[in-house]
Amino acid sequence: MNLEKLVSMVSRVxxxxxxxxxxxxxxxxxxxxxxxxxxxxxxxxxxEFAVVLLLFVIAVQLREMKEELRKRS
Length: 73
Prior knowledge:
- By secondary structure, the chain is mostly helical.
- The protein has helices at 3-33, 43-72.
- It has one domain (3-72).
């Protein structure tokens, strides 16, 4: 497996994981608004982890776009 495929796979996993954590954090926020809790108040930490994962994915995608543009010119 070459590096390009590995980076693509990791990017996809982080993308899906980030959105899953984001969804879970939103569900926790809605549950807290109604007076319940699912994760005992750890929803804010999940949101932080989701943002970090998604920022990593954005950085990797921008790097891939830059390399693609460099190949074309």
